[in-house]
Each structure stands twice: as structure tokens, then as C-alpha cells.
Amino acid sequence: MRFALVLVLSPLLAQQAVIPPPLDYTVFRDEVQPIFLKKRPGHARCVECHEHGVPPMEPLAPGAATWTEAQSRKNFDMWKQFGKQLLVHPLAAKAGGDHFHAGGKHWASKDDPEWRILSQWVSGTRGALEPRVLQSNSAGDSIDVINPATNKVVGVIEGIEVPHGVVISPDGTRVYVTNESKRTLDIVDAASLKVTKQVPLSGRPNNLAVSKDGKTVYVAIVQAPGAVDVIDPVAGINLKSIPLKGGIHNVYVTPDGKFAAAGSIPGKLLNIIDTVTNTVAWTLPTDAGVRPMAFVTNPDGSTRQIIIQLSDYHGIAAIDFVTHREVKRVPLPDPTGTPKETQGIQGSPSHGLAITNDGKILWATSKWYGYVAAFSLPDLKLVRVVPVGSHPEWLTIPPDGKNLYVSCAGDDATVVVDNKTMQVVAKIPVGAVPKRNASGMLRTN
Q1: In this structure, is residue 199 part of a structural domain?
Q2: CB atoms within 10 A of CB 421
Q3: Based on the domain organization, do 110 and 162 belong to the same domain?
Q4: Cα–Cα dist 438/148, whole Å
């Protein structure tokens, strides 16, 4: 009987062992199919060959940018049978790919974001994107990961002593952190929250930004003489340093992705970098050091104004992006009867900006008085002052746009303000002296 039982169960166990995980149609449609349509320098698009090759793809309708839902279903049913070939045919042989692929080699490394998308889809490990707020703790060695749905800390990135800037990659698979103690850009895997690589920088870093396509990370180098380092996060190399006058405190990519804005405190300059050539497009001298920034856009997504905060100024200034001139300066209010905080201000009585996702409200912090102020856009009229706590610093708004997250460095907390009611709705304990924060969609597994 025991022998017969083994004969019955063994085939079942063997069958279970080789059953691959089900492939996700939504991930295929939204993330895999766009790779087939991507034009890479020196290569034909995948779709050009596979519309009449093997495995076949549905032909695009004349003038269509992508496939219909019905066509996507047919593509999925075909390509799920050849999933593993996606991983080896277009991958360079030295990285583990096939010796030859008639369509050429598109990826030199398994670290390429596109290859990672395909690998995770084929293996069934491509997790859902979840909104997250990342709060760096400037006097500690950790970054708290907050779920905005619950306003609870759900993870911690550990082991980065004196983390400065933090940003999420556009595809949600990585977190980039500037490591002041080691002068590196630390690359963190989103699923494990572990540092996977450290890229040496040209000097001590401050804040950072990532390009819209995820292929470039810009790092502000505050150490004299000052620069912006241009990093290839896939290859994990420092491509170049753009020399700039004075240490660079913050760098941002404009909403349309065409420019990077870098502000210098000692140089008293706003530097605008062309992200295609990675060269300086123009500079604007200011009467004080340039600190946080936010961007007001035109209907077509181009940049209309840069809102900046300046050293030793309790307020905001608006810079016209086309004329390169300051067009308005608005002071923050001094509340009657509220004591002014003067310790630890570090020359920045106002040091945090964020614009709501609908573009109607600009938030700014007051470290002097422990509040955030809401201004209407584009007229910059004061709407509301909301007390939040001690030393409010950076601000971020997750993709759903519901709440504003305020890092209160003096309270070791991240305070949550409802963007609609403009009232505090939560206070989240985090690490030591939280300052820079960021938000976006993060891969959770």
C-alpha cells in the first residue's frame, strides 16, 4: 500500500513542481508591451520584426500608438508561451543571453530596467505598485517607509549613515539615496529595502533628482567647488560632473523632464541644465542662497515659473522661466503672539515647498513659527496657515494627492495635513531629525 501511494502521489508532486506561476495580463499590457514599441538608438523596434516574425504580434492599426484591448489579449496569449525567450534572446551573451538574436541585443546587463520588468513578469514576481512616502532621518542611519493609506511606517531602509536626499525611480523598483558619510549614491532595491550598490561621487552630496525615463540620476555636490554629478543608475557609474559655481544644495528635474534646476547657497545662483546635453543652459544670480524649489507649469506641461526659497528670507520668490527674471516675492506671515524659533535655523527660516497635484495650491514651510502656509496659484495669495510642529522642513504629496506630508525635524515626526480641509490628520513617529522626504509608487515585492 505504501508503494502504491508513492506511485499515485509522485506524478502529482512532479507536476506541481514544474507548473510555472500564472503570468499577469495587466502587467503585460501596461509594462511589457511598451517595451516592444520602444525605439532604441541603432535598433529597429521589436514590433517591426515581430508583426511578421516569430513569435508573432498583432499588427498596429495605421497611425495607432499601441494595440487595442482585444489585440493586447491576443499578444498576451501568444507571448506568454515564449516568456523565457524574452530574457535570453535580446540580452548580451556576456550577461547570460543567447549567442545570437535576429533582432539584435537590446540589453547589456540584467540590471537594465526593461530587462528587470520582463524577468519579473516571466517569473511571476512583478509586484503591484503601491504609494509610499519615504522620510529620511538626517541625524540617523535610516529612512522610514510610510504607507499613506494607513499613515503607518511599514518598512525601514537601514545602514545609510547621514542620508540626505531620497527619491523613487519612475518604475518603482529602486530608491536612490545620497549618502553623506561615504560620498556615494546608494541604490536600494525596493522590494527588499536593501542597498545593492554604492556609486562613488565627486564630493559630499546634498539632494538629488531622477530623470523622467529613469536613466539618469542628478546629484547635487555641496562640497567646494560645487557640481552636479550625472549618474547612470543601471550601469552604476558616475558619467560626468557638471562644474558649477559654489556648492550645490538641491537639484530638481522639471515636470516636463527637459531641464534640471540646481541651486547654490554660497554661489547665490540658480543653474538650469539641459537634460539632453547635460550642459548648463542658463544661470540666474540671486541676492541670497537658493534653497528648495517647486515648479508652476503651463497647460502643455512646460515650465512657467520656478518658485524658490532663499537663505535668510522668510518667504518665497517666483522666477519667470522664459525671461529668467524674478517677477514676485511674497513674505510668509508673522503670527501675532507666536514665539519665533531661532535655534538651528541654519540660515533658512523657510525651507520646504510642494504644489498640490491639481496645481492650485502651493505649500511652504515656516521654521520660525512651526507652520505650513497655503498659497493659491498662480496669484500666490495666502489661503491658510496650518501649525504643524517644530522645525518643519521638506514637503511631499503622494500620487493620490490627498495629503501633504511634512517632516518636522524638531519633533522626530512626519505630520500629515489634509489638502482639502487643510487640517492636521496624523502625526507619524519616525527617526532622528527627519528632513528630506519624497513620495511615489514603489514596488512592494
Answers
A1: yes
A2: 10
A3: no
A4: 12
Looking up cell 536613466 gives 215
Q: Do 172 and 271 belong together in one domain?
A: yes
287-296, pLDDT tens digit by residue? 999 999 999 9
What CATH code is carried by the domain that includes residue 360? Answer: 2.130.10.10
Are 197 and 295 in a shared domain?
A: yes
pLDDT of 2: 44
Backbone angles phi, psi at 318, to 5 degrees: -110, 130
Is position 9 within any domain?
no
Do 238 and 114 have their domain in common? no
Q: φ, ψ for residue 58 (rounded to 5)?
A: -65, 140
From first CA to last CA, the distance across the chain in angstroms is 43
**Euclidean distance between CA atoms 344 and 157, whole angstroms:** 26
- Same domain for 240 and 339? yes
Of 94, 123, 152, the residue at which a domain comes to its end is 123
pLDDT tier at 10, thresholds 50, 70, 90: very low
Residues near 83 by Cβ (< 8 Å), separated by ≥ 6? 23, 121, 122
The label of the residue with cell 542620508 reads: 163
What is the average pLDDT score of the chain?
91
Give yes or no: residues 248 and 365 share one domain: yes
- The answer to whether residue 6 is domain-embedded is no
Provide the H-helix boundaries in 19-129.
25-27, 33-36, 46-50, 69-79, 83-88, 113-123
Which of 43-57, 384-398, 431-445 is predicted most confidently?
A: 384-398
Residue carrying the nine cell digits 520584426: 49
pLDDT in tens, 158-206: 999 999 999 999 989 899 999 999 999 999 988 889 999 999 999 999 9
The kind and range of the H/E element at 275 are: none
Among the listed ranges 23-27, 137-141, 315-319, which one has the minimum average pLDDT value?
23-27
d(CA 146, CA 304): 32
Q: Give the closest residue to 250 by CA, choosing from 206, 283, 201, 311.
A: 206
Number of domains in the chain: 2
Q: What is the pLDDT of residues 67-106, one digit of tens each?
A: 998 999 999 999 888 878 888 989 999 999 888 988 888 9
The helix (H) or strand (E) run that includes residue 239 is strand 237-243
- Domain identity same for 362 and 407: yes
For residues 164 and 189, membership in a common domain is answered with yes
CB 444 within 8 A of CB 128: yes
**CA–CA distance from 9 to each of 6, 12, 16 (Å)?**
5, 5, 11
12: in domain: no
Q: In which domain, by residue range, is 168 found?
A: 132-443
